[in-house]
Amino acid sequence: MKTDESTPYQRLVQELDHRCQQMATGDLCFSTHDKDGKFHLFYGRLLYVTTERHQVRRWKRAVLKYCPDWQPSSALLTFDQSTTPWEYQMLYEGVAREKISLTQAKIVIRQVSLEVLFSLARYTDISLEWKPSSEKKTHLSLGLALSFSEIEQIFTRAAQMQQQWQTAGLSSIHPNLSPASKKKLNPQSLSGLAQYLDGRFTLWDISLRMGKSVISITRALVPLIKKGILQLRQIPDLSTPLPTPTGATSASVRSPQTTPKTPFLIACIDDSPVVAQSLRKILEPAGYKVVGIQDPIKALAQIAEQKPDLIFLDLIMPNANGYTVCQFLRNAPLFEKTPVIILTSQDNVIDRSRAKLVGASDFLVKPPQPQETLELVRKYLPQSSKV
């Protein structure tokens, strides 16, 4: 009989790989004797990693390091943490509103994941539980959530860091601990390190502020700890940036006498602004509203925010293709029933068949002709406005 000699950390990697290959949506919950948390997955991609300990500290460190000029606002969030972590929602808003770049947002997710996995790599008692979710309403971007290949790189780096930590003789110390001096130190001593030894900062925090690795910072403090000059202690997390609900919102208690009609919103995802303009000239006089989206990467974030009633989708775009975008939309509960009409100049049986396979509702040849376009839109949106 073959014995399973894989470590709990390796089994965690294998379980995540399995869920990613399944294109699973849900939370992979992990638990140790003193730590609990979740890997939040959406169709096999990692949205974010959360833990009960120092969740806010970890988030603020990563944002301060990689998005120093950004001031995240919680005013526009849905605050439904049961479906999507607030950290991910803030990153989404930052990218969608062009306050931070997609690269910055992904680095924040990677850094947070790295710190969590660095801690997990030392445990021998990791238990796992998969909690699937049949519906997960969230703002999404194909480029923002991490694929397993990206996750695997973080796992490898975290294991290497933990090995270096152990080799440096720091196995009895956790970087979430805060060093506090038992006597007053000169702020200029220890190359400026002394100013952070007042029990307000964790070793992770000090590493960020000093611009040095957490291993080098901790090694520098070990002699003071052994001499009893410093003591390591647990400190609480920072306050959450989310507002505390005080009751029903104005929207939830508002009961207007009449509900105004709203025009149906139609999104045109096409790298050419000419196509969107052509659709506007055809559809807006008929009472529809058309929004043009040229960037295929930012498109998913924008349509998630605006929730169009119908989508025109180009097949050939820079860095993406319409088939991939269409399939992703169909896999997302938010858009699984939204009519998606493929726009292309390639009118042939192969393209039409492939479009149907990925869930396209219909097919429209470029350039769009007024009568054909209106008939197609009215087929899926019979009225020019909705209540």
From TrEMBL:
Top-level taxonomic group: Bacteria
Localization: Cell septum
PANTHER family: CHEY SUBFAMILY (PTHR44591:SF23), STRESS RESPONSE REGULATOR PROTEIN 1 (PTHR44591)
Residues modified to 4-aspartylphosphate: 314
GO biological process entries: heterocyst development; phosphorelay signal transduction system
Induction: By nitrogen starvation.
The keyword Phosphoprotein is assigned to this record: yes
Gene Ontology CC terms: cell septum
Job description of the protein: Controls heterocyst pattern formation.
InterPro entries: Bact_response_regulator (IPR050595), CheY-like_superfamily (IPR011006), Sig_transdc_resp-reg_PatA (IPR024186), Sig_transdc_resp-reg_receiver (IPR001789)
Annotated ranges, domain Response regulatory: 265-381
Gene3D superfamilies according to UniProt: 3.40.50.2300
Organismal lineage: Bacteria, Bacillati, Cyanobacteriota, Cyanophyceae, Oscillatoriophycideae
Originating organism: Lyngbya aestuarii BL J
Keyword terms of this UniProt record: Heterocyst, Phosphoprotein, Two-component regulatory system
Protein name: Protein PatA
The keyword Metal-binding appears for this protein: no
